[in-house]
Amino acid sequence: MRFPFDRRTVSGITCTRMPGSSVERWIPDGWRRLNAARTIAIALALAAIAFPVSAAMAMAQKHEIRHEIDQLEDEWRDAMLTSNIKAMDSLLAVDYMAITASGTLQSREEALESMRSGRLHFTAIKISDRKVRFYGTTAVVTSLANIQATTPDGHLSGNYRYTRVYVRNAQGAWKIVSFEASRVREPGPHKRSEFH
Questions:
Q1: What is the DSSP code (8-state) at residue 103?
Q2: Which ranges of the chain would DSSP assign to H, the alpha helix?
Q3: pLDDT over 90 for what percent of the chain?
Q4: How far apart are CA 108 and CA 92, in angstroms?
């Protein structure tokens, strides 16, 4: 490879003269290594500064999204307590599917019709132990709900564990795509297992 300048090295010192110039610059070879090391150190320092800033931004964004999901959970609870079909309609995705505590499948239309008919009416829903996990544009919520409700068969109450799945759609809105509830069995006398 040819350089457009004259270069000579004498005992570890390099002399460089640019074309058309009578000025020679003598630079010790160690300085070149020092400049390279300094450049690497500056790059590493900048990366070290950028990482916490990036991590802080990611944490702030996650906190903001968590707050948004918490608000949607509160909207769901309020819609159930007031039989607000319009609010529930805006929360559920078009392809929403639920597995009820009795093990039956319930589509979006069936969920809205059940609310519209008043067959199941909630009088109290107390939520606790809420956990929210994120997987890209999906949020998975697990909670414990203590409910009081009336059904065609009479009064219904108890604790239920549920999982609700939200997906952020192309418009940036979170929609409920799945729901599953299971009744929490109250502790009772345990039968002795033959394997115990």
A1: S
A2: 29-82, 85-91, 108-117
A3: 53
A4: 7
- Alpha helix (H) residue ranges in 83-167: 85-91, 108-117
Give the residue extent of every domain in the chain. 70-183
CATH architecture of 70-183: Roll (3.10)
pLDDT digits (tens, 9 = 90+) for 115-141: 999 888 899 999 999 999 999 999 999
Instruction: Report the pLDDT averaged over residues 146-175.
Output: 93
CA distances from 89 to 115, 139, 169, 175 (A): 11, 19, 15, 10
| Structure confidence by residue, pLDDT tens digits, 22-52 | 555 555 555 555 566 777 777 766 666 655 5
